[in-house]
Amino acid sequence: MPEDKMEIRLDADVFHKRAKHFLSIWRVSKKHLKLANFNARFESSQNKEANGELFQGVNSILVVVGEIMEEYPYQKSTAIQQWLLGYEFTDTLILFTQDKIHFIVKEKRAEVFEQLRQGDRQVPIEIHKRSKDPSHNQTLFEQIISKISEGEQKRVGLLLKDKTSGSFVQEWQNVYKNFKTNFEEVDIASGIAAVLAVKDDDELKTTRMACKISTAMMYRFINVVSSVIDEEKEISHEQLSEDIENMLYTKDEKWLTSQKSLQDVDFNRTDVCYAPIIQSGGVYDFKPSAQSNTDKLHDGTILCSLGVRYKSYCSNIGRTILIDPTKEQEKNYEFLLDIQRRTLELLKDGQKIGDIYSRVMNFVKNKRPDLADKFVKSLGHGMGIEFRESAYNLTQRNTKYLKAGMVLNLFIGFIDLENPKSTDEKSKTYSLWVIDTVKVSNSSSQLLTEGNRALDSICFSLKDGNESDHEAKKENEQPKKPLETKRNTNRKSTVLRTKFRSEEKDDESQDQRRKKHQEELAIRKQADGLARFSEKSNEKTSQHKAVFRSFESYKRDTALPKEVKDLKIIVDSKNESIILPVFGFAVPFHISTLKNVNKSEEGEYVYLRLNFMTPGQATGKKEDNPFDDPNANFIRAFTYRSTDPLLSEIYKKIIELKKAAAKRETERKEREDLVDQGKLVEMKDNKLPAGRRPTHRLSDVFVRPGLEGKRVPGELEIHENGLRYHSHRTTQKLDILFSNIKHLFFQPCDNELIVLLHIHLNNPIIHGKKKTKDIQFYREASDVQFDETGNRKRKYRYGDEDELGAEQEERRRRTLLNKEFKNFAEKIAELSEGSVEVDIPFREIGFQGVPFRTNVLLQPTTECLVHLTDPPFLVVPLADIEIAHLERVQFGLKNFDLVFIFKEYSRPPVHINTIPMNKLENVKDWLDSVDINFYEGPQNLNWAQIMKTINSDPADFFEQGGWSFLKLHNENEDSAASSDSASEYMQSEDSYEESSSDDSSLDEDASDVSSGSESEESDESAPDWDEHEEKARRADERKHGTNRGDESEDDRGKSKKYRR
């Protein structure tokens, strides 16, 4: 960041930490020692670079910075300044010696550099003040040169490729040139690059924020391009590049506030790394010097890349947008993503860069040899304060080694591919790329830029059903024609819905856009279902069937109890068996074979009837119990009669044994799907001093579900491969591995009583003797010392000042709580090396509903729909949803229901009831925005029966049209509802009388239908309507004592209108 008049604060701790690191690498390089002896970050692979002498044995290092040169934004001289000081200072000279750092700065700026003397364990520094007196400055420069002259070898390290200019540089050069012949100048750019290549935690945090900004801008760009193509606007690459760049400079308030991940960004310290590059129309350039040209945007293959600097740290992202791609183009793009996944596995600590490129190239040649010559010659480069760290170009010739903590710009692409099937000349040549910012770690690399990478996110279709290349789309898009006809008919109508044509057009276009998108999703869902449940894969998707379990009471006769000699009923709880006397033999039966037991008394006799499991019985369960051989002979029941009162005791023992066996069976079924998540690796001794706890921990938090016993707070700690929760007041502990975490949610305490971290697991664990997939850690946001009722602590407070102070303290406390929990969640995501990401609920688009028994607030997140405030918790991953169905959507109702059907059809659907009708459009927009296909209907459906039918034969279900039956069901219900509503309006008495008088002309037709003259005679003798009217008037006069004729016509009209 260039220096300005604002107050500058230097971080002395960061400066001395990084200065020590820099000097230590320099010393070891000079002595040809292995860097693994002093810094684990530069072990093994760094030895070869050390032997190659990063700094080539120089005695001193000189860095001179003059005026800012806009044409050279990335130089190592300003990069080392930014790395050490956090700012770029003009007209500054820095001399590094083995034991001290010298600064020559302006006299006014010297006060800023004095801040570096703060703190302990300092690196010795000396600040020389430069004035306007040339003779004084010459003396300072000669002193610096004398420092360079010390020692036997007069080798000085310089950044010879950096460009400098300005009066200060010229003044220094005038003095230095007189002594230049006394020194040996050495370029130490590679040494500086090695020092800056590995980022510390603070640098990685800043880089992640820059990547979040880049990701958000790319997401915005894709939306803009889709709108431009959809509306058939003409715009040049150059103009579109300027519009995207202006998003950051103009600080679009509406866009920025909508991005939750960017709320902590200081946009005063953001900048673009380069002007966004946009290419289309068959002309593509992968060179670093490429720029957006003045050609118009072409609706074929569109490439875009953009980079953002945040606090001087760079990020980069690039995506391909495909408009109406062919199958071959989709196949090539999917292969491009496979290459990226393969490369990410190879980018890890200790790998030689040249070997990585060779292995990736071999992967391309083996899988797709036809694309090998089109593959990029470089996989990217190192990145940090400099956008392009050329010492770490990912090419085949680079002999350097990767180290954990490096940040790379990963570039995967194919250039100038041919598309001979295209009828458009500009679409016959296309290119593909995917560019991301990645962090190198010990096992594999981690993507720092997310989203908009999958084919579904970057592929758009503009063709009609008749023009589609896919046969499945042709068949499924044919029903669109009636919709288009209906829409055109509405447009030709002379009756307008609103007073303004533009308003109607905007509303209609938004609704039509959503309908069109839903139709595309439905077509895609149908095609996926047909491919998923094809005949070849039908066996794999068959429903799980119960398996016969064999039970063994005794292995041999000698194991039977001794009491069997008495031929009595014996209940053996140890072996879970009942031994019954049958025709003089003691026959054992396992308790699992017993269905039930009944006892009855008649006189002095006690009857005991034992009923056993047999094939074909109605067991009351969803599935019949399996049998090894259903055709074998079975004993259905035994009945015993006795006068012995011990038979009642035997009955009680059998009941208790049956209950115990049922309980054990239930526990066994609960533990069937439990997966061993492994053991937690605690913080190593070399990273954690003896007797100390982990640095990253969250204190005074409660867990839900709670530990056994009394509710007590505990601590949540981050270890090598997971989390551990424990309390000092109990010996219980809870371990959660990163590999078992599916979703991590942070919910702030804004408008809530608690702040929480919620973990949704991949596989359930046993916690508190119960199986669960959701673990939550929370802390109450309200202060226990603060009494909201006005009693005790507040009864002596008077006036508004105390209340205002308490409110301010409450807000401050909540802000600190949110910050503490959010930082801890981000630390979990960081130390998990990409396996865990933090998700935050969007409260502003939440809606009320009843997922269980109570009405709660349901909040969408990036990947789920959640309710986390109170148990039972609800976490519905969007990736698991097949379709959504909106039920009870009809006029006059205040609420509607929402049902989620999952891709795993054996999983029961999730019902969310009683959602307010005013949230209907919001829910539809949200479902459409996350690409969930939804349908709606006026009634609730029996989903248990529907899913049973689908599971019986999924392939046949999709061959018959799949989920399109919901659309047909909705249309049929709509027509039925309209007829029902008409019949309801016909039920009122007044309307019946009016309709009878209006339809009097139909009496002749009715008489034709009547048979016989008897009905005709009765019609002639029946009183006419005037007589009926007269009788009604007289009845009203007798009842109310008023004359109906006195009523005015207006009053009659009002009363009629009211009755209607």
UniProtKB/TrEMBL annotation:
Residues 847-937 form the Histone chaperone RTT106/FACT complex subunit SPT16-like middle domain. GO terms for cellular component: FACT complex. One of its GO terms (molecular function) is nucleosome binding. The keyword Transcription applies. Residues 10-192 form the FACT complex subunit SPT16 N-terminal lobe domain. Pfam families: FACT-Spt16_Nlob, Peptidase_M24, PH_SPT16, Rttp106-like_middle, SPT16. Residues 569-725 form the FACT complex subunit SPT16 middle domain. This is FACT complex subunit. It comes from Dentiscutata erythropus.
